[in-house]
Write a structure and sequence with these properties.
The complex is a heterodimer. By secondary structure, chain A is mainly β. Chain A is built from 1 helix and 9 strands; from the N terminus they run E-E-E-E-H-E-E-E-E-E. In chain A, strand 3 and strand 4 form a beta hairpin. Chain B is built from 1 helix and 3 strands; from the N terminus they run βββα. The longest helix of chain B has 14 residues. Classes of the chains: A mainly beta, B alpha+beta.
């Protein structure tokens, strides 16, 4: 199983504020492994991935199903194994949003963060089809 | 940078535990096989650099006002045939 169809995100509010373990950290931030996934209901569908170590920075993230109808990252076999994704519903996918002072906010579709909903272990993966996705997909405004 | 010459079928060992093997040449493209312990991630450099840069740009102040997300979803243009066979 390499491609996971995206489902509508389940309500994850019962699991937020839990610790997400990223054993490889994020690319460029490999030393930080422990994060908290925070939801502020007024900001739905945005979530915050908050570092629990070091400088305690936060990343703004978005489930891609909130903005795209057919985002289909093709996960590498090793990543699926590592994360123990036995079925589609196991994967919570979040993409990092970049806010900018000038220009639209953008979301990174090239390197999604994939979290196993059962184990709450995640990884920022580079899918096999990463080349067809940008790191700066503009967010449209309603 | 250490520069070595290898022929297809030959390998390089790093730190006694990372092996890079030249599998074959396909025109201008060199197929490499990499064996590394599971705790050592291996990526193509240009993609790694691009995502790392994007992560660093994304660090933000949690008080930032957030753009409202458009309710109509964009269908993302898909290139390629969606073939999911493992690359050889």
């Amino acid at each position: 199983m390499n491609t996971l169809e995206l489902l509508e995100p389940e309500r994850i509010s019962t699991r937020t504020n839990d610790v997400v373990l990223l054993p490889y950290g994020l690319l460029g931030f490999e030393r930080v492994k422990n994060y908290s996934l925070l939801a502020k209901p007024a900001q739905d569908p945005y979530l915050w991935l908050q570092m629990l170590e070091e400088a305690k920075h936060a990343f703004l993230v978005l489930p891609p199903s909130a903005i795209l109808a057919n985002y289909q990252p093709d996960f590498e076999y090793e990543d699926v194994e590592f994360l123990e994704l036995n079925e589609t519903a196991d994967a919570l996918i979040l993409n990092i949003v970049t806010m900018r002072e000038s220009g639209p906010a953008t979301v990174n579709l090239k390197g999604p963060i994939v979290i196993n909903r059962r184990t709450w272990i995640g990884k920022q993966v580079i899918p096999n089809n990463a080349a067809q996705y940008p790191t700066r997909h503009p967010l449209s405004f309603s | 940078m250490l520069i070595l010459s290898r022929k297809p079928g030959e390998s390089i060992v790093i730190d006694g535990r990372i092996i890079i093997k030249i599998m074959r040449l396909e025109g201008e493209v060199v197929k490499l096989g990499i064996e590394a312990p599971i705790d050592i991630p291996v990526h193509r450099q240009e993609v790694y650099d691009e995502i790392q840069k994007s992560n660093k740009e994304a660090l933000t102040d949690s008080r930032t006002k957030l753009p409202r997300v458009a309710p109509n979803k964009t269908a993302y243009p898909i290139k390629g045939n969606g073939n999911h066979a493992r690359p050889q």
